[in-house]
Amino acid sequence: MTKPKPKPQEQDLRHPDLYFNRELSWLEFNHRVLSEALDERTRLLERLKFLAIFSNNLDEFFMVRVAGLKRQVEVQVSKRTPDGRTPQDQLNAISDRLRPMVREQHRHFEQDLRPTLKDYGIHLLDYSQLTSEQQSCLNDYFKDQIFPVLTPLAVDPGHPFPYISNLSLNLAVVVEDLEAGIEHFARVKVPKVLPRFLPLPKNLWGSDDASILWMGVPLEQVIAHNLDFLFPGMTIREYHPFRITRNADLELAEDEADDLMMAIEQELRKRRLGGSVVRMEVSSTMPDWVEETLLQEMNLTHNDVYIVDGLLGLEDLMTLMSLPLPDLKDEPWTPTVPNRLKRLRDPNDDTALSDLEDGEDIFSIMRRHEILLHHPYHGFSTTVQQFIGQAARDPDVLAIKMTLYRTSGDSPIITALIAAAENGKQVVVLVELKARFDEENNIWWARKLEKSGVHVVYGLMGLKTHTKVLLVVRREDGHINRYVHIGTGNYNPKTAKLYTDLGLLSSDEDLGADLTDLFNFLTGYSRQKSYRKLLVAPVNLRDRMLELIQREIAHCEQGGTGRIIAKMNSLVDPTIIQTLYKASQAGVSIDLIVRGICCLRPQLPGISENIRVMSIIGRYLEHSRLFYFHNEGEGEIFIGSADWMPRNLDRRVEAMTPITHPRLMKDLLEVLDIMLADNRQAWELQPDGQYIQRRPDADEEERSSQVMLMERALKASTPL
User: Which entry of 31, 123, 375, 466 is annotated as an active-site residue?
Assistant: First the structure.
């Protein structure tokens, strides 16, 4: 018999040195996104895409996280984070870490990517580089298409400093009235209703037409070189682009709101007007006195200013992804259909279910098999949408209940739910109105669903409903059967092509009963404390996860082995982290695949030497949550919507389901093994907080987990 391992000496696992700061960890995630733009192995237009994503991520970071820290400083919050920082400490650290990143981004674009784009026939030019004929063409375009849209706003005693909208690109213009000998300051907004990059007509590309695929100029430069039209009789002395970011987080007092939808609409109106300015980006050419004028008018400090050497607003580079240049993009991917669903009929087929000869309905398939879905390797439209579509049309379906956290603007799922209600079915949809930056879209869909007879509810006070679940109730041979989908991602056909997510289609009686209880909890009055199989936050998910980690510790302490593999978006929760430290000290082998924020410090002697942390950044956003506990060979696997963060475990409604079928468990373990072996998209977190990207050895084959999972899906989709 193996001798039990001695327990480690007690150590203070709450010490600040054992934690990374959440905000700084997020910045490291965004730096990994930027690194994909810097990596020459990434195709050219995809590199532009990653630059744009980096910028867009930063916008949201400032609108929410930095804005929140600045509010805390204003009201003198002194509480420290687990890593020991005050709000002001965090703002200072963000500034110190982010400035070199921003310089790196713009240097790379201006000095590396722009010249490389030109080598491939994509000429993003400055106005000053144009020929006189090209300038004349754009000047004519300005007079016809741009000038009528613009509104110059003067700043003087009779014209107060204008309101500057969130994420707007502007020109600070200095003009002189020579007759009066007076200089004036004005602001011109670059309109978002016009393309950011104006293409030049092909007949003006020049003599070397064959090598040019596209040629364009930034809109703000065309405006800047035609300012005389906006200020006739004035002399244009100088102009300088700048861009601002405002606080856009909603401040919702739910306990004081009689009508949650109305309260959110009021907050959205405030967001459109904009909160306080939290960042200003300025061109490096801007003189100190112009910068000081802007700082004073917008109540900013120099620490809120980011100086850019080159184009501002690089998130607009995403528009160049629409260029028809497939060789400069990732190879297109056509999602596969799981073998179990190969005979699934098209839900748009008007053939009655009882008359089908060549296809089966999804319910008969789900009665025989549980089906594991892995998007985007499996198609969303041919799986989840088919399930909802058939349920909407099937005369034996009595009820459809689902949660909607985010969905697309033209969602076929919404169309199917409306059709189901019109077909007389009981349709209940929980629309999460507090889904950040999707609030307005969700309100619009909620009203449309309500008008169609769908029962719409908005979740629980104080809790955001983040779970992704769907329940279909069907009458079969005088009995009631329930069919479920439980997933890790939103019911959004567009993001299902860009995010990796897992889902389970099942007719398991316990899962059906659990979802019935969960929907009663969400739509009515219930203090449901126990579920048959589901792990539900904030009811039992936290406690069960801690128990599963503790069980691995117990196996090691009793002389056995412990093994945990956990994949998630973020790891922040201090209690979970402390328990993982204890597991490492007990000898449990732990691999964490954490895409974004990770506050756990791995590989510390005596604390976390048995914990390895990696992050995968690739063409798809890793969004699935998957947890494996070895349990001395009697392993348990869970998938669901929750990360290991306090908000997910305590302040959101989340659901995780066990995967119990041996075939599906084997599939998921293979997925984890493929990810752990990645040497192309994988980054390893070091004890000092740095991430180092894996590189194949000279004699080693490159292994991109996302490429391997696409190949695996293709192989598995061959007929049985």
Answer: 466
CB crowding 398-421: b at 16 or more within 10 Å, else e: ebbbbbbbbbbeebbbbbbbbbbb
- Residue 425 in any domain: the answer is yes
Residue 106 included in any domain: no
> Cα(526)–Cα(600) distance, rounded to whole angstroms?
36
Indicate if 575 and 434 belong to the same structural domain. Answer: no
Per-residue model confidence as pLDDT tens digits over 572-610: 999 999 999 999 999 999 999 999 999 999 999 999 999
Of 508, 529, 550, the one marking the end of a domain is: 529
Q: Where are the alpha helices (DSSP H) in 614-661?
A: 646-650
Confidence label for 170 from pLDDT (cuts 50, 70 and 90): very high
Q: What confidence score (pLDDT) does residue 431 get?
A: 84
The yes-or-no answer on residue 15 being catalytic is no
Ranges of beta strands (E only) in 511-647 are 535-537, 563-568, 589-594, 611-616, 621-622, 626-629, 636-640
**How does the average pLDDT of the chain come out, rounded?**
90
Specify the DSSP element, H or E, that contains 557.
helix 541-557
Q: Are residues 161 and 188 in the same domain?
A: yes
| Helix 705-716 vs helix 662-676: crossing angle, to nearest 10 | 150
Mean pLDDT of 150-160: 81
- Same-domain check for residues 524 and 543: no
Torsion, CA 320, CA 321, CA 322, CA 327, rounded to 10: 110
In this structure, are 553 and 618 located in the same domain?
A: yes
- Span 484-534, pLDDT tens digits: 999 999 999 999 999 999 999 999 999 999 999 999 988 876 677 789 999
233 has a pLDDT exceeding 80: yes
pTM of the model: 0.91
CB-count burial class (<10 Å; 0-12, 13-18, 19+) for 59:
middle
Residue 343 near residue 77, CB atoms below 8 Å: no
Structural domains counted in the chain: 3
What does the pLDDT look like over 640-649, one tens digit per residue?
999 999 999 9
Assess if residue 24 is contained within a domain.
no
Classify the phi-psi angles of 666: left when phi > 0, otherwise alpha if psi is within -120 to 50, otherwise beta: alpha
- Both 570 and 628 in one domain: the answer is yes
* DSSP code of residue 19: B
Q: Give me the CATH number covering residue 279.
A: 3.30.1840.10
DSSP H or E stretch at residue 682: strand 682-685
Residues 558 and 529 sit within 8 Å (Cβ to Cβ)? no
Instruction: State whether 556 and 664 are in the same domain.
Output: yes
Q: Which domain holds residue 238?
A: 127-328
